[in-house]
Amino acid sequence: MMAPQRFRVLRCCSCRLFQAHQEKKSLKWTCKACGEKQSFLRTYGEGSSADCRRHVQKLNLLQGQISEMSLGSLEEPVNVDGEEDTGPQQADHAGPQVSQRLSPCH
Ligand SMILES: [Zn+2]
């Protein structure tokens, strides 16, 4: 019987990419994306290969969203007021109106 392989979710300190690596005794690992050699600092998750890959995807997605948001306002509360809550607006009818002219015929 073979023991199921355990994987860890690690994060590169250089390119900050999350990735799943097979568990091993060595404390050194190499980033799959940028090739940065680094020591094992902390794990973001452990489990089977499939579990870790799913977790990596989620973390990378989450990280992308966070860094996009932090470009604007880092820790400011999000205010959702603005132009939207000034009551009903009639901007929908701002387009050019086609008025039909009836040419008088005598
Ligand atoms: Zn890297």
UniProtKB/TrEMBL annotation:
Chain intervals with Polar residues compositional bias: 97-106
- Coiled coil region boundaries: none
GO CC annotations, alphabetized: nucleus
Origin, by domain of life? Eukaryota
Question: Where are the annotated segments for Disordered?
Answer: 72-106
Q: Which residues form the MRN complex-interacting protein N-terminal domain?
A: 9-90
Organism this protein belongs to: Suricata suricatta
- What this protein is called in its record is MRN complex-interacting protein N-terminal domain-containing protein
GO biological process: one example: mitotic G2 DNA damage checkpoint signaling
Q: From the Swiss-Prot or TrEMBL record, what is one GO molecular function term?
A: chromatin binding
